[in-house]
Amino acid sequence: xxxxxxxxxxxxxxxxxxxxxxxxxxxxxxxxxxxxxxxxxxxxxxxxxxxxxxxxxxxxxxxxxxxx
Length: 68
Fold this sequence. Notes:
four-stranded antiparallel sheet; 34% strand
């Protein structure tokens, strides 16, 4: 059964920002799907097992943005 977690990312201003965050988060082991909404900063991650929030934070920061 899949797990879904939602976070808020700040600092994104364009489609390239969304692509960067998506790419970095998809690298986290266990992530099945990533959805990022530019207007709201919503980051939704679907995975088989719960994903460590610290891993998500690190991936978002690697892309150059902040997790709220």
